[in-house]
Design a protein that fits this description.
Blueprint (H helix, E strand, L loop, with lengths): L2 H8 L11 E5 L2 E4 L4 E4 L2 H4 L8 H11 L12 H15 L3 E6 L2 H18 L10 E5 L8 H6 L3 H4 L11 E4 L4 H7 L4 E6 L2 E2 L5 E2 L2 H14 L2 E5 L27 E4 L10 E6 L20 H16 L2 H17 L6 E7 L2 E6 L1 H5 L7 H11 L2 E2 L1 E3 L3 E4 L7 H18 L1
Parallel strand pairs: 3-15, 5-6, 5-7, 7-10, 10-11
Antiparallel strand pairs: 1-2, 2-3, 4-12, 8-9, 11-12, 13-14, 14-17, 16-17
Helix pairs in contact: 3-10, 4-10
The structure holds pyridoxal-5'-phosphate.
Length: 415
């Protein structure tokens, strides 16, 4: 059997895949099994902040693999202590404790469990637990049961036999302060949001909305849960994504979740909980996962974050990202109607009606991402009408120009 036949026969068909087979990567470049080269501006969907096979990452994996790959959380793991310190001091910059897991959905699941505990410990006036979590239209929090129903998109949770209200989820229009205020009841225990929504097309929270959410949390004793799975570690130009919306320490979440970039492609997720009553909600035996924070995972996480900090990749992402955005905004008569850019987290909103005239029924984003791929540029569709760029944070100006050139030529051919 060929690999194509094996994939079709043995691998679950839950992904709509483009028919290319990447086998090797270096920096911002990837090669497929036929030797064709691609510029990778998809970055494994925001997973590769320092590019493919960066020497620091390869060295960290190799060294740790030769020393100790895994040991149980029954014991103390040095890498967890070091990585947690970095996350607290360099990313959140507020005292708290970190729990390590393996993915974004799992990190969010942990934050949701924190909220459930908080609702039980700080119940309603009648003594019954508060159990509602507010999340927002356009959100994406992952595919486990809890994270899936925190996601306010029916295409994610439809067909699984439950309704959002069964799990205590309440959906509110994103960035609508009045609607958020109106949704608060004595049953609500938390507000959960992505500072910049990735899957729905690089849609930022407004500073006003984030401040309102924080004020409502303070007023009604709710937890402010920030899902930073896609927007953190320099992706949006700051170590903490929310600081690209409200700078400094004004926003003080109760919990923050991470995954994707933290492990440079090695599965690693984490959440941080504020010191005091929030961090003490999950004591011994209340939560855990076998692989979470293994020595190998933590070595990769440390190498990734240290490289981002040492090479000042936040500043680089901001500068190169804003050059890309200005150049595209200057293209006349292009198929791009709006550019939303935070560091190297960039969403190009497409003129979907024009593209879909010739797209054989495909959504504009899927169609264009396919054409870009044919031309050697990997990007990620976000919703039906946005193309996302998530290149390594250390791309060169020359690589950015090559990507821009490919996109301009492909769109000219389509137009
Ligand atoms: N949260 C956000 C904001 C995401 O973008 C994603 C994945 O795209 C997730 C959670 C889920 O992460 P994972 O796929 O690692 O479970």
């Amino acid at each position: 059997m060929t690999s194509d036949q094996k994939l079709a026969t043995y691998v679950l068909g839950n992904y709509g895949r483009y028919p290319i087979w990447p086998v090797r990567g270096e920096g911002a470049r990837v090669w497929d099994r036929d030797g064709k080269e691609y510029l990778d501006f998809a970055g494994g969907v925001a997973v590769c902040p320092v590019g493919h096979c960066h020497p620091n990452i390869v060295q960290a994996i190799t060294r740790q693999a030769q020393t100790l790959i895994h040991v149980s959380n029954w014991y103390c793991i040095e890498g967890q202590a070091d990585l947690a310190e970095l996350l607290v001091t360099e990313v959140v910059r507020q005292p708290g404790k970190v729990f390590f897991c393996n993915s974004g959905a799992e990190a969010n699941e942990g934050m949701l469990k924190l909220a459930r505990r908080y609702g039980a410990q700080k119940p309603k006036a009648d003594g019954s637990p508060r159990r509602k979590v507010i999340s927002f239209t356009g959100s994406f929090h992952g595919r486990t049961l809890g994270a899936m129903f925190a996601t306010a998109q029916e295409k994610i949770w439809g067909g699984f036999g439950l309704r959002p209200e069964d799990l205590g989820n309440v959906y509110v229009p994103f960035n609508d302060c009045a609607a958020l205020e109106a949704a608060i009841s004595d049953d609500v225990v938390a507000i959960m949001l992505e500072p910049i929504q990735g899957e729905s097309g690089v849609n930022p929270v407004t500073a006003e909305f984030l401040r309102t959410a924080q004020a409502l949390c303070r007023k009604h004793d709710l937890l402010l849960l920030l899902d930073e799975v896609q927007c953190s570690f320099g992706r949006a130009g700051e170590m903490a994504g929310w600081r690209s919306i409200v700078p400094g320490n004004e926003i003080q979440p109760h919990a923050v979740s991470w995954a994707k970039a933290i492990g440079s492609g090695y599965p690693l997720g984490a959440f941080w909980a504020r010191d005091g009553e929030v961090a003490s909600l999950l004591g011994p035996g209340s939560h855990g996962t076998t692989y979470g924070g293994s020595p190998l995972a933590c070595a990769v996480g440390l190498a990734t974050i240290r490289t981002i900090l040492a090479d000042d990749l936040c500043a680089h992402a901001k500068s190169i990202g804003s050059d890309i955005a200005s150049e595209v905004r200057g293209w006349h008569g292009s198929l791009i109607t709006t550019v939303r850019q935070f560091g190297l987290f960039i969403g190009f909103e497409l003129d979907a009606a024009k593209i879909e005239k010739n797209s054989n029924g495909k959504a504009a984003s899927i169609y264009l991402a396919g054409k870009l791929l044919d031309a050697g540029l990997m990007t990620v569709p976000a919703g039906p009408s946005v193309i996302r760029w998530l290149p390594p944070l250390n791309i060169s100006r020359e690589e950015a120009q090559r990507g821009l050139g490919i996109m301009r030529d492909v769109m000219a051919a389509i137009a």
